[in-house]
Amino acid sequence: MKKILIIEDDQEIIKLLEIHLNDLIYATSKATDGEVGLEMALANDYDLILLDLTLPTMDGITICKRLREKKNTPVIMLTAKSEEIDRVLGLEIGADDYITKPFSIRELLARVKAVIRRTNAVKPEPQNTAVIAVEGLHIDIDRRKVLLQDNRIELSPKEFELLVLMASNPGRNYTRTELLDMIWGYNFDGYEHTVNSHINRLRAKIESDMANPTYILTTWGVGYKFNEDILL
Questions:
Q1: In terms of CB atoms within 10 Å, which of 64, 118, 140, 177 comes out highest?
Q2: CA distance 146 to 133
Q3: Taking the alpha carbons of 199, 201, 203, 205 in that order, is the dihedral positive or negative?
Q4: Sequential DSSP letters for the chain
Q5: Beta bridge partners of 75
Q6: How many CB atoms lie within 10 A of CB 149?
Q7: How far apart are CA 182 and CA 179, in angstroms?
Q8: Distance between CA 30 and CA 1 in Å, rounded?
Q9: In the listed set 70, 87, 121, which residue is the last one of a domain according to the structure?
Q10: CATH code where residue 16 lies
Q11: Residues 139 and 211 placed together within one structural domain of the fold
């Protein structure tokens, strides 16, 4: 059974989410306080976190930042604010999706299922374990595990999906719009800079020289690609 943590201070919203998520056979836990929610998120393994932006003791942006320093649990941010800066900031610090209150419960449930589905989509069947190994970089797709020179690298879900997509298709050029559509899965037209932010964070984790990358190359005027020359 998939486990979902709800970090939200509105009791009515919590009750609504619990009823509908439980109907979909998801197990739910809840926290109405930011610091408590972060402690729960770090201490337990959840398949998804629904995270309110405005919370007592610690806001959702800070929680997401601190969570990403330790874990890669998928996050959907909930907020009563609709300003673009909040949406962009939520996505760029590592949230997997973003929905503005008041929201349609049907839309939120669709997004919950989509994020969980995408998180599991890169996993092949156990008997078909896929591993990509090149130039000191080892990507175990089945276990969602990345090693660089035998050292474990912690990637967020979106960073991992970007790496797997490009490493599985070395030499193929991807535009920012294509990556946005293929990885985020929703219509985020105008948010291509979110791709840049994730690529930069991914590079910071796997490249020894950000100015001279080995693995993920910039194709000027197009977007990005995984370096096919290191496969030769």
A1: 64
A2: 10
A3: negative
A4: --EEEEE-S-HHHHHHHHHHHHHTT-EEEEESSHHHHHHHHHHS--SEEEEESS-SSS-HHHHHHHHHHH----EEEEES---HHHHHHHHHTT-SEEEESS--HHHHHHHHHHHHHHHHHTPPPGGG--EEEETTEEEETTTTEEEETTEEE---HHHHHHHHHHHTSTT--EEHHHHIIIII-S--TT-HHHHHHHHHHHHHHH-S-TTS-SSEEEETTTEEEE-GGGG-
A5: 49
A6: 10
A7: 5
A8: 16
A9: 121
A10: 3.40.50.2300
A11: yes
Structural domain contains residue 222: yes
Classify burial at 32, counting beta carbons within 10 Å of its beta carbon; exposed 0-12, middle 13-18, buried 19 or more. middle
User: Beta-carbon neighbour count of residue 130 at 10 Å?
Assistant: 14
| Phi and psi torsions of 213, nearest 5° | -65, 145
Whole-model pTM: value is 0.65
Q: Considering 121, 143, 178, which residue would you say is the last residue of a domain?
A: 121
Tell me the C-alpha distance between 130 and 141, whole Å. 6
Would 126 be classed as within a structural domain?
no
Q: What is the pLDDT of residues 164-176, one digit of tens each?
A: 999 999 999 999 8
User: Residue 42: which of 4, 78, 72, 79 has the closest Cα?
Assistant: 72
CB 224 within 8 A of CB 173: yes
Q: What is the DSSP string of 51-68?
A: EESS-SSS-HHHHHHHHH
Q: Which amino acid is at 34?
A: G
Q: Please choose, from the candidates 35, 224, 87, 73, the residue with its C-alpha nearest in 3D space to the C-alpha of residue 155.
A: 73
Residue 12 and residue 103 share a domain: yes
